[in-house]
Specification:
Elements (H helix, E strand, L loop, with lengths): L19 H16 L7 H14 L20 H14 L1 H20 L2 H13 L4 E4 L15 E4 L3 E12 L6 E7 L9 E7 L5 E7 L7 E12 L3 E2 L5 H37 L1 E2 L2 E2 L4 H33 L8 H27 L9 H8 L10 H14 L1
Parallel strand pairs: 1-4
Antiparallel strand pairs: 2-3, 3-7, 4-5, 5-8, 6-7, 9-10
Amino acid sequence: MAKIPAPPSTAHLALPFFDEAHRALASDLLPWCAAQEVDERDDRAACREWVRRLGDGGWLRYAVPGSAGGALERLDSRALVLLRETLGYHSPLADFAFAMQGLGSGAITLAGTPEQQSRYLGAVGKGEKIAAFALSEPDAGSDVAAMAMRAEPTADGWRLHGSKTWISNGGIADFYCVFAKTDPAGGTRGITVFIVDATTPGLDTSEHIDVMAPHPLATLRFDDCVVPRDAQLGELNGGFKLAMRTLDIFRASVAGAALGMGRRALAEAISHAKNRRMFGQTLADFQLTQARLGEMAALIDGAALLTYRAAWMRDEAEQRGGAPVGDVSAAAAMAKMAATENASRVIDMALQMHGGLGVKVGTKIEALYRDIRSLRIYEGATEVQQLIIGKSVLRG
């Protein structure tokens, strides 16, 4: 097992955005992550293994509320950020496995009936069920209103027709929170959510999607897929708002994952610079190297402050019963945009510093270079975040 470099600093945990429970969480998670070793050559098998380990370790309890056996009374954005930052530092696939348990079941946490929450959330928090969030379609990604998936009422429930794609955990999930048009002319106001178990007849998850950084993705096809009436999740035609509320909780945590990857790249660059000898000295002795490391550190810390602020704002609003503490959505968009873009720059700089080793398949830097790229796209591409921020600025 290759030695994992320690993060350059954990001083961010002392910031006033966090309380002692958050600091204890981060302190306990660090040694647990360092002790894990999972063969990730088969991403689907590895993802299942990470879910099992995260469940056994008690970490998935932070992905569900206290009423379902969660570690905290409600989903806590700061805890999610710290978890994803630490997991992302050690293994982006472990981060993915954790995040999808929360995102995939988030709509049930927000709008599920007591029966739905009892059936799914406890198992998610223990790692006994794998969750998935099925929103995107071949022609409906950022443009949710273009959704073509249909749900038609039957005597006893609903019949689903259509397809979803780029679905994380597709093919390994035990259930999917599926968004479908129940009012074809209603645009975003005509979407409803349904819980669809993986074993439901008419659901085909066999079309897997291979991407540059291995993650379990699939296209889902629904052909006369009938679900019972109690599979409806939340209000009829209230699916778009539920999707946005779910994404708002987890958007800042995407930034946390990017921070973890960026911090790992910086740590790898520092270690390499201190040990790589050239022209009679180490790479770290060159002023150009020092300047580059300084730039990398500033990029990470700048994004970190936006990320922690966004998570704190969301949690404060929840504590106040929804009372605003500023534009939470815009703050989350700033965090997601800055952290993913800055981490991409930091990882690129670290790769350049490694020279030929940086592009050697199998090295950590080469893997990070591939891992970070998708974060600038999923859960709202950078351009979508810019629009959210721009509209907020215009509103004043």
